Amino acid sequence: MPNTYVKLYVQTVFAVKYRNALIKECFRKELFAVIGNLINETGCQTIIVNGVEDHVHCFFTLKTTLSLSEVMKSVKAKSSKWVNENQFLEERFEWQRGFGGFSYNQSSIPNVYKYIKNQEIHHNQEDFKNEYLKLLQKFEVEYDENYWFEDLI
């Protein structure tokens, strides 16, 4: 077979450091657009980026020559730099280390899209920790509860 044909759909989830509510309404949509563009710049294709004040969900197709970690490292570094350079906050903006990554089949696209699009409504009923725990359990991801979130000491 002379070519490689792959379509990988992934959702990533990552939080503001210490899960602080720093993604303010005044720049939230613009930040999500920046994140989507940064994903596209890697050669991946953004489907949707959305979230709330303390975390972000990204849904995209993963380019076969990149690892998910490479994409997230670039996106998180460049997007936090963008927030800080634009001085949206009085304090320094940082993402928490790590991320969650989950794969989907093509038939799941409409449901995942709707779920991410409706994050604000969703989080009126469920907090981020519970949401993230459910994702980890649904996808049978092994995790250590001592290290799944960075907390203030």
What does this structure look like?
The chain is an alpha+beta fold. The protein has a single domain, classed as Alpha-Beta Plaits (2-Layer Sandwich), CATH 3.30.70.1290. The chain has helices spanning 25-41, 68-85, 109-117, 119-122, 128-138, and strands at residues 8-15, 45-52, 55-62, 100-104. The protein has a 4-stranded antiparallel sheet with strand order 2-3-1-4, with helices on both faces.
Write the layout of secondary structure elements.
Elements: E1 8-15, H1 25-41, E2 45-52, E3 55-62, H2 68-85, E4 100-104, H3 109-117, H4 119-122, H5 128-138
Antiparallel strand pairs: 1-3, 1-4, 2-3
Helix pairs in contact: 1-2
Question: Care to give the gist of this entry?
Answer:
The chain is an alpha+beta fold and 153 residues long. The protein is built from 5 helices and 4 strands. The chain has helices at 25-41, 68-85, 109-117, 119-122, 128-138; strands spanning 8-15, 45-52, 55-62, 100-104.
